[in-house]
Amino acid sequence: MFNDYQTIVKHLGDLPPMPAVAIKVLELLRNPYCSAKLLAKAISHDAAVSGRILRIANSPIYGRQKRVTTLEGAIVVLGENILRTLVLETSLRGINKSFGRLERMLWEDSIGCAIGARILARHLGQADPEETFIAGLFRHIGKVVMSNHDKDTYQRVMETARTANEGLIDVERAFFAFSHELVGAAVLDNWNLAPALVQSALHHHDLQLDPQCDAQVWHQVAIVNIAGQFCRRLGIGQETPQPELNLTLTPGAIHLKLGSEPLEKTLGELEALFEKERDFFLVPAR
């Protein structure tokens, strides 16, 4: 699917593999006869994933009166779609080789975009909310990989783009030969994730998809594009917020023909939820 994969490997070295537990869980979820017991056994080998799943299952989101104390019970509460999302989310957390200021900003940006994309997908009903959450989560995985490859250089990239008022993609190409979209698409393709997720990583900025792409893919990428702008507007994972940003002019809003009212409503929901649950979303899985 992704023709530049080998070229990117030559420049950046081997791309990060998907964690073993994630591979096993996704494999099990493809089996219609898979049980919560088998899933729990696979997940139990990774303390970070196990802890995250138990924490989510016991969160106020599910309003349970009785505390869930076993992985098997947590899996039953969450269901397969949420479980898949959490396993992939924890996989992204685990890619970071360190967790300093840059990594924290990238994670905040990723989780903010993912949450915003899920909220908007639910409102619009034009894309699966959990798939769209994952697409938002991984849209900037290329930045994480580039930072892991050479953190000092990637920090210079970010600083140059900010202070010289140059486009980030152009600066990335000047320093690394590739932009984060290409690197991210190569990683997700290497992980054998759905083509729609690869397209979201590749086109979340410009929406320059093949016109023959399925409408669902167009909707998903457009929603992720808007959610990324939500983060810029609110300052989630950014140096500073950009309150003057006009959301109706973003490529995603234009494609979906969204006016100011639904965009501002979703933005307000994201801001309220993110502020209320900030620590819950951003606690490192370590």
Detailed description of the structure:
With about 290 residues, the chain is mainly alpha-helical. The chain has 17 helices and no strands. It has helices at about 5-10, 20-30, 35-45, 45-55, 70-80, 80-95, 100-125, 130-140, 140-150, 150-165, 170-175, 180-190, 195-205, 215-235, 250-255, 260-275, 280. It starts with a helix and ends with a helix.
Total separate domains: 2
Say how many strands there are.
0
Biggest sheet details: none
Cα(first) to Cα(last) distance is 34 Å
Structural class: mainly alpha
Q: Kindly estimate the percentage of residues that lie in beta strands according to DSSP.
A: under 5%
Q: Specify the CATH homologous superfamily of the largest domain.
A: Hypothetical protein af1432
Number of helices: 17
| CATH class placement of the largest domain | Mainly Alpha
Basic shape: globular
CATH names the topology of the largest domain as Hypothetical protein af1432
Q: Could you report the average pLDDT, rounded to the nearest whole number?
A: 87
**Over the alpha carbons, how many angstroms does the gyration radius reach?**
18 Å
| Helical fraction | 55-70%
CATH architecture of the largest domain: Orthogonal Bundle
Feature tags:
0% strand; 17 helices; single chain; mainly alpha; 2 domains; Hypothetical protein af1432; 286 residues
Walk me through the topology:
Blueprint: H1 5-12, H2 20-29, H3 36-43, H4 47-57, H5 71-78, H6 80-95, H7 101-124, H8 129-138, H9 141-149, H10 151-163, H11 168-176, H12 180-190, H13 195-203, H14 215-234, H15 251-256, H16 260-276, H17 278-282
